[in-house]
């Protein structure tokens, strides 16, 4: 079991050696990690900056709802399906509010 000091020290280090993160890059915020992992899960790493921006600006509950929808589907292009569903849900929220 690790002490709290060890855990905090690990979190303070640059995340360059952790699996699943881009080599030589720093991930310092939670939304950056979430956006990058979302891009990888959708197989759309070319647009990872878009997913990082969405993780920062869009309600996380909405992102999770769309992510679950896309992951449960058998779509070939999950990135496109994600963007389509995000647009549909945003339209629905605007008409309700």
Provide a descriptive summary of the structure in words:
- The protein has 97 residues and is mainly alpha-helical.
- It has one domain (8-96).
- 66% of the residues lie in helices and 0% in strands.
- It has helices at residues 4-12, 30-42, 48-57, 60-72, 78-96.
- Helix 2 (30-42) packs across helix 3 and helix 4 packs across helix 5.
- The protein starts with a helix and ends with a helix.
- Residues 7-16 have a biased composition (Basic and acidic residues).
- Residues 1-22 are annotated as: Disordered.
Mean pLDDT: 85
CA-CA gap between termini: 48 Å
Order of helices and strands: HHHHH
How many helices? The count is: 5
Largest sheet: none
Shape verdict: elongated
Q: How many independent structural domains?
A: 1
Present the secondary structure layout:
Elements: H1 4-12, H2 30-42, H3 48-57, H4 60-72, H5 78-96
Main attributes?
single chain; about 100 residues; mainly alpha; elongated
Quick structural gist:
With 97 residues, the protein is mainly α.
């Amino acid at each position: 079991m690790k002490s709290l000091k060890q855990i905090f020290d690990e979190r303070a280090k640059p995340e360059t050696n952790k699996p699943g993160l881009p080599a030589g890059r720093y991930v310092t915020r939670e939304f950056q990690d979430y956006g990058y992992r979302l891009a990888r899960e959708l197989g759309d790493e070319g647009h990872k900056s878009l997913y990082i921006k969405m993780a920062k600006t869009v309600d996380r509950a909405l992102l999770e709802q769309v992510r679950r929808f896309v992951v449960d589907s058998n779509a070939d292009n999950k990135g496109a399906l994600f963007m389509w569903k995000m647009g549909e849900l945003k339209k629905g929220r605007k008409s309700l509010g």
